[in-house]
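User: Quick sanity check before I run a bigger batch. Here is a single chain. Can you write out its predicted 3D structure?
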Amino acid sequence: MPHTAPGPRAAETHAAIRAALFLVLVGMCAALHIWKVPPALPQLQAELGLSLVESGFLLSAVQLGGLFLGLPVALVAERIGLRRCVLAGLGILATASMLGAWLDSSLLVLLFRAAEGCGVLMVAMPIPALIRRLVPPDRLSRIMGLWGSYMPLGTVIILLGGSWVLSLGNWQLLWWLLAALTLGCLLLTLRLVPPDAPADAGRPRDSLLQLARATLGSVNVWLIALIFGLYAGQWMAVIGFLPTIYAAQGVSGTTAGLLTAIVAGANAIGNLAAGRLLHHGVAGWHLLVAGLATMIVCAYAAFGAGLPASAQFVAVLVFSMVGGLVPATLFVLALTLAPTPQTTSTTIGWMQQCSSLGQFVGPPVVAWTVNRSGGDWQWTWTATAAFAAAGIALAILIGLRAKPRACATR
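Assistant: Done. Predicted structure follows.
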């Protein structure tokens, strides 16, 4: 049979899926800025004279933008357009990274980390809604599983690549390189991602206040957002401090970066698995409970059980891998449990805001716990387990609320 070229619709579908996959790469680029601090933290501590708790705030300062602006940015994105919001965020990230490297001081590094947090939020918040707009429904859960991996995959790249760059130069070099990469992503976004559709003048639009009320008035939105914050706080704390923990044990910077990258990258396996399991009909709240319960057990095994170093590493690896079931599940639930299609972005924005709260609070809480125990990391698990247990309770509430709806549709 003669080969026939794909029709216009098939070509459009392929282009849309290609754009969606590129948006995952854009999210990974934003994640590089979040996770560029952990491999550089020993250098920053030595150069800026930071204490352990101050280092915890440096890790979490990038969350300040999301902490205060998640929902407001989502509301603005609905008006200016999702693609424009992503482009603006990439511009902020590139500028803040350049200025942070050029005007280096402890205060300015913290300020520009906060600015980068705004940029990360403006990039990551609109992308799930953009993917939903681009991708056919039958492929959505699997691509959202891939999107849930943007943070761990970006973490792997920066922990490995960042450690290598830091072995060649100082932390400012790393900041400059990431600024250049981000500018490249901005230019490719202009080329590959379709422009925002013009607003339909004949269709009534909800006011920003109506969108905010609909979002914050939904119990389901609050449940998934709070679970995201509880998950993100413990994951950020454990992965963020791993290079410091390894350095205290005498592990070299490059080896510490490699081990931390392996642990962070394992999280992507859980995200991809969640996408496939959801596609095959597994209930989302089951995946949430399984992921968070495993994190409790593994955190105790890694830090509190006094196991050998090899067993501790396996426990942290499983902590991250099975914990990866949580973020991908929450992103899919956000798309399905948003009160209306118009509140998809604001639901994601509120999730990001609660996630930023968790990531801002998590590292200092763990650092405080370690300081209270005399600098012993074995009590780390008590702080992370408290986060996970609260998340399990909220996930069970999602399951209980889903049962009446399921019975009503039978």
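Residues 17-193+208-408 form a domain with the Growth Hormone; Chain: A; fold (CATH 1.20.1250.20).

User: Great, the batch can go ahead then.
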